[in-house]
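Sequence only, no structure available. Ideas?
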Amino acid sequence: MKEPVQSGEGNGACPGGAACPLSRVNACAAVRIKRLAAPPEVCQRLRELGICEEHQIKLLQSGCSLICLVCNARLALSSQMGARPTRRWSP
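Reply:
I predicted one. Tokens follow.
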């Protein structure tokens, strides 16, 4: 399964502003979800948790698990799930 991918410039951004998985973003980076690349039932659950298209999240910690700040709540995702969402750096 893949997670949202992000694009952007700056600290922790993917080279050239290209899209990349959340698992490749540096910790403390704010990103905007652009696309969810997962089976429909997983996408629906992510949306219910606040990880949905055009929403901004902040990656607090990366590694074997990803800890994100979503809607003022911390949410842990597996690094496998972090390879899925499509994100974009927030201005």
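The first strand starts at residue 5 and ends at 6.
Hope that gets you unstuck.
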